[in-house]
Amino acid sequence: MSILTVEKGLSADVIRTLSAHKKEPKWMLDMRLKAFNYFIKQPTPKWGNTELLEDIDFEDICYFNVVGKNEDNWDNVSDTVKDTFEELGIPEAEQKWLGGVTAQYDSESIYHSIRADLVEQGVIFMDMDTGLREHPEIVKKYFGKIIPHTDNKFSALNTAFWSGGSFIYVPKGIKVEIPVQAYFFISSENMGQFERTLIVADEGSSVHYIEGCSAPTYSSQSLHSAVVELVAHKDAHIRYTTIQNWADNVYNLVTKRAIAHENACVEWVDGNIGSALTMKYPSVILKGEGAHAEIISVAYAKGKQHQDTGAKVIHLARNTTSNILSKSISKDGGRTSYRGLVKVSKKATGCKSNVVCDALMLDETSRSDTYPTMEVSNSNSIIEHEASVSKVSDEQLFYLMSRGHNEGEAKSLIINGFFEPFTNKLPMDYAVELNHLLEMEMTGSIG
């Protein structure tokens, strides 16, 4: 079914092959090769779950696999790919309440559409490869400026091998009232997926972008290493929602960062279910006075899974504000970690930040850790942090069961209530689907 598949393993030749296939400008190929050289020289990070990170065999990964060309008519998509996305409900969601959708299968988008009224308003929403071809001046202005390849080992890996992802530009003053969505699916064993997403909201504009992620389970590992860059200009508003449900053989190592200018607002709404290891810390740099960051994340880990997630906010300007809410559940020996940073510069007076971390452990073998870092360089800011760890109590179960619920229903109600601050941010269809996923994951849990 594949149009182009490269051999497994790291090499500059793979980069040249995929860049030639995409007919990229020379500056992009040069950036890729520079990032590749940086990646090769960098050691594996010595923090987080180093044991799992060291298990990654980069030579046993396929870095580029294209299964079909990008279509704008669903009927033209191959039956195999179509069946996958129809099972995930993508076409139905597009018809009911989405302003646009991109579906990526392994390395490239295989379907894309956007509503005509958004196009008429000047909204650009397309896969990243098409964005580079059709809007090179915008891409070159922002690509790699918020997250350079030197940021970390995995941002370098993504910059070297990136393929697919989403490119969005919202013109000045345009409010995109309905969400747009991208869905990323890894279909192959030992596959590496390296999508690159860039969203630019011009002055006074707004957009809500939703991404979903999943993969079938194989006996060997797959690697997902994405980079997401957001730019919210003056008075702009970006909400970026993620619901990932990776199989437990996927290593999910993602770098996400936004810059918020004067009075802009950036929201990360981040849901993490599945994967062998997730390391992801959505961040916002509050560059303009009055800018605001809102980060809500939930994580669920069971068995050998480790969700190492959190948030970072850098207050660079005066009177900036941020709220971070982290919720996690660990079960059957699963491990969740909150790893966060709030940094306030010397000149950023009048700032306010509130961090809340709540963990729920469902048995004695599970684990939850909190690693907060706060660096405040002035005495005229208010920074708050609170953390709690709890379990599903016998009293809670008894009360709900006395009201006519069986034990399984009672547990599901408690879990859904625990995650409610997250699901309240989701469109109704997504909230229902997330609750359904959690109910399935909770089967057989111990109170």
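(ticket continues) Second input and output from the same batch:
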Amino acid sequence: MASIADRLQRVASGVGERLGITRALVYSVLGRVWSVMAGPVSLVLIGRFLSPEEQGFYYTFWSVLGLWVFFDLGLGLVIVQFASHERAALRLENGRMTGDPRAKERLASLFHLALRWYGYAGALMLAFILPAGIIFFSHYHRGGGKVVWLWPWILLSITGMINVLIGPLTSILEGSGLFHDVALMRLLQGMSANVCLWIALFLGADLYAAVVLNGMMALFGLTWLFVRHRGFFLDLRSVPSEQHRIRWREEIWPFQWRFAVSWMTGYFMFQIFNPILFATSGPRVAGQMGMSLMITTVIGLFAQAWITTRAVDYGALVASRDYARLDRTFRATLVQSLVVIVALAGLVLLGIELLRRIGHPLAARVLPPLPLLLLIVATLLNHIVNTEASYLRAWKREPFLVIYAPMCAVTAIGSLLVAKRFGVTGMVSVLVAAVAVIGVGCGTILFMARRREWRDEEALDAAVATEMLQP
């Protein structure tokens, strides 16, 4: 693993020097490229080796497992933001953070807090989601009576908990300036997990293939962190942090609770579709939605690479009040990522239409053309909303709570109301309307207002501080 990683790092450094881009962006884009390449392979193999009913269970498994957001409460991304602010006074030397003792103590305090939070949250997740899934699939499994799903679901829940426990460690690394290393880990992790998934499907593992995928993700992540960053975490663990301890209630929670609500709305915006369709229309339709969501998610994640690799820098630029550079970076990444979404969406729609015209059975495993197009439009609009939110989060605030909450409520309630009468087309139509009017329309107005207001506040604070220093 180490030799492969070192080789990729050398290649990425050379590409970065020629094109003027960061290694983090290279790895993230490579990861998205892999997702774009591997996604069709997974779709074909799932369509080939899983029945339509098993496909419905497969994708609904992941949607129910997504209930994890109610235990995470968005702390992972909050950790990245707080760690990035402490990183401004630190530097990485020989795998350990050095520099301002106070900043290092606060980083260590954040590390201890994250371990405690995710330890309890992981246990609660397993205690709640595992039995909840058993109850749900037992009650709404009509049309999928012959599907073997119980033990795959149990094992998937356990491996999911292990992946949850890895999350805070990667968040600390990202915020500490090791975003490129985490991006490389995710690239190799995704490649390994996808290959194992394909082998499992080819060998007839059925729904156990989902367990293989999740289990490989957990095994690779644990191995990577232990081999490459054991010293980093042991060093943080040994740092006494009581004197400059980060106080969760006073510092993190005022930011986190807003982010948590926004984070949970993401579940209701997209992942709620599969359980609703599974219950109202059966596993077959849920499988079509699941495969379509997989396609649009890959498109969105690929474009998001342009945003996430810069989000860590946003905090440092806000801390140094370099707003001109902040705006330039934001505008460039937004335009570039939108072009990526449009290009990939066009290729996907063209490919599926070709499959339909030649009568390929895989074309029947995704949504019909109209709801699929609407789902892609919703993905593009939602990307704009998330990009604006990422910019404002650099101030350690979450103003988009007032946008995400009503957008989520309209989507979830509207989907429940129209599911039986108008089916999947009605559900995604509600989604597009909610994201367009509330997300992009109201969200952009809020974005412009808060951006101007917070800059004026910091300029005033700086002026007051300068006056106080004058004799």
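Agent notes: The chain has a mean pLDDT of 84. The chain has two domains: 1-246, 286-465. Closing as not reproducible unless the customer responds.
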